Amino acid sequence: MKRITVIGSGPSGVHFARAALSRGYAVEMIDVGYAPSPPVSPDATFNEIKTGLDDPAGYLLGTAFEGILLPGEQEEFYGVPPSKAYAQRQVPWLQTRSRNFAPMFSFARGGLAEMWTAGCYPFNDAELTAYPFDYAALAPYYADVAGNIGINGEADDLAGFLPVHDGLQEPLRLDEHSALLLNRYASKREYLQQILGCHVGRARQAVLSRDMGERKACRYSGRCIWGCPTDSIYTPSLTLDECMRSAHFTYHGGYYATHFSCGDDGQVRAVCAQPLDGGEVREFPVDTLVLACGALGTSKLYLESVYRQTGEVKVLRGLMDNRQLLVPFLNPGMIGRQYQADSYQYNQLAIGLTGDTPEDYVHCLVTTLKTAMQHPVIERFPLDLRTGIHVMRNIHAALGVVNVNFHDTRRDDCTLTLDVGEGADSPQLVLDYVPPAGEQERIKQTVRRLKKILRQLGCFVPPGMVHTRPMGASVHYAGTLPMSVEPRPMTVSAECRSHDFPNLYIADGATFPFLPAKNITFTLMANAARVAACID
Ligand SMILES: Cc1cc2nc3c(=O)[nH]c(=O)nc-3n(C[C@H](O)[C@H](O)[C@H](O)COP(=O)(O)OP(=O)(O)OC[C@H]3O[C@@H](n4cnc5c(N)ncnc54)[C@H](O)[C@@H]3O)c2cc1C
Ligand code: SF4
Question: Which ligand ends up closest to the CA of 509?
């Protein structure tokens, strides 16, 4: 039986592994793999948690209130809750330095998507133009992944931007505020579409609206932000568990892979990994190696391997991420109503904005405020705390935020390299991002347009509240070892096989040659399954 070694248990790694196992390969996985604590009171709803736990504040905000966002610290509206802190735990061997980029790494069992918001948006043909395959080639893998993880959504006005693949479950029940916005859209549809180029529809999420195997359909407990206790929201550790049930799968958790080594023929021979418990470096022999450490982690491992092999410090070009804006809004039609804790908490609606070309599409996700933390909003009111809390009680159900995503392209001045220092044990990863020309103007125009759209939907944007998130914050990293039909150095083939090392494959976003204005992870999973189907 042929053996494949995969590094990383994020969405890319586990969907590669699942597909390779189904083709009869033996799969070994090397992973850091920090694990979560078991869910607290899994049957309780959000309101029952608030009233029923001995220390609800400890659970919801942290025993040292570490889940709280302090005023002005990050200008963010959401923080990572204490129950997901394990997914942010780092390793001592990864040091970074960056300019214009705030990188995020996860070493959790399941990777960054253990704390994701589960948005699943397939790329369309226009967005795949720079790729060596089209939507039709990827569609079977989208359908396969959708059938495996459970995605809900609808063929609605967004279908022109979001291809309707097989395996979609029916959408979740809408919360009252989202339903109101969708009804408003229906009554203004022609104007919004034709004059403002705005299409509104249901979000697509990896959340069950129907039972699937042992996983239960969403029961509207309102606990999404702290981690779904019933696995209705998909996380990659579920697929890792599925792989673990195969006799041909071996999981080496607790190892941080620093580099691979090669023979004189350029073939990868082994992976060197540091055990987290501080023992000796372990060498794992390799037949075929697949890197799935997330685009940044894979790039670091690649650069360090080349450096240790040749003494050369290479520069990887083309680093991409989606610029994101947060645009808060107030819907006067909802003032004085009760916020809905018994609903799905992340975004339930999406807005597609047309651009000059299909690549300029802007992707917006609309979240109405329910059980999410209120203090980052109250802190921004020009009011004292007591008055702020009083006002908040009345407008809580009327608030929402639009998360706006812009596309990105590979550019030579967005780079990743190493600083090997003198005598440093572990080289530092150096990231440099240069925003595209005209970005500020594009942001200004989009905000102006979105304000008009929100007015049509009966809402307005309070002055001074729009926040441009730092590059890196969307965590959709891509582009550093891109697919290329021409066999150029530091690129991969259409099958994501390295043009430099013949038995090396890359299964994560490092290989993506263009980043549409869409959440990337569904395509990471589909592409990883496609790579496993191509491997020989
Ligand atoms: C708050 C938040 C919300 C998000 N919401 C969405 C969303 O709604 N939709 C969406 O599409 N995306 C979303 N994302 C992004 C999504 O999580 C990532 O795109 C996705 O997880 C990347 O998958 P990956 O497998 O390529 O890498 P990662 O998830 O980064 O996984 C990397 C894996 O490799 C392992 N690893 C890394 N380096 C090493 C090493 N050297 N040795 C051993 N193991 C290693 C880690 O332990 C981990 O298991 C969100 C992310 C965050 C943080
Ligand atoms: S997805 Fe959210 S609302 Fe649904 S069951 Fe899970 S935590 Fe509750």
Answer: 1
- CA count, 13 A, side-chain hemisphere, 337: 18
Please report whether residue 442 resides in a domain: yes
Instruction: Indicate if 195 and 328 belong to the same structural domain.
Output: yes
Read off the CATH number of the domain in which 159 is found.
Answer: 3.30.410
Give the torsion through C-alpha atoms of 8, 410, 519, 450, to 10 deg: 160
- In angstroms, the CA 249 to CA 20 distance is 10
* Neighbour tally for 109: CB within 10 Å: 24
* Average confidence (pLDDT) over 300-318: 97
Q: What is the gyration radius of the CA atoms in the chain, in angstroms? A: 23
Closest atom, ligand 1, to C-alpha of 11 = 25
Residue ID of nearest Cα to ligand 2 atom 4: 218
**Number of domains composing the chain:** 2
114 assigned to some structural domain = no
Residue 371 pLDDT: 78
Specify the pairing of strand 428-432 against strand 415-419.
antiparallel
pLDDT at 71: 65
Domain residues for 174? 152-223+324-405+436-470
Q: Distance between CA atoms of 4 and 282, rounded to whole angstroms?
A: 18
Cβ pair 499, 484 in contact under 8 A: yes
Convert the pLDDT of each residue in 277-294 to its tens digit: 999 999 999 999 999 999
CA of 224 to the centre of ligand 1 (A): 18
What number is the average pLDDT over the span 175-192? 97
Q: Find out whether 378 and 385 touch, Cβ atoms under 8 Å.
A: yes
Q: Is 490 left (phi over 0), alpha (psi -120 to 50) or beta?
A: left
Q: Which helix (H) or strand (E) holds 189?
A: helix 176-194
List the one residue out of 481, 525, 523, 153 whose CA is nearest residue 320.
481
User: Encoding tokens for residue 93?
Assistant: 């061997």
Same domain, 70 and 219: no
Residue 47 belongs to some domain of the structure: yes
- Whether 240 maps to a domain, the answer reads no
Reported as a single tens digit per residue, the pLDDT across 481-529 is: 999 999 999 999 999 999 999 999 999 999 999 999 999 999 999 999 9
Cβ of residue 371 lying under 6 Å from some atom of ligand 2: no
> Same domain, yes or no, for 451 and 366?
yes
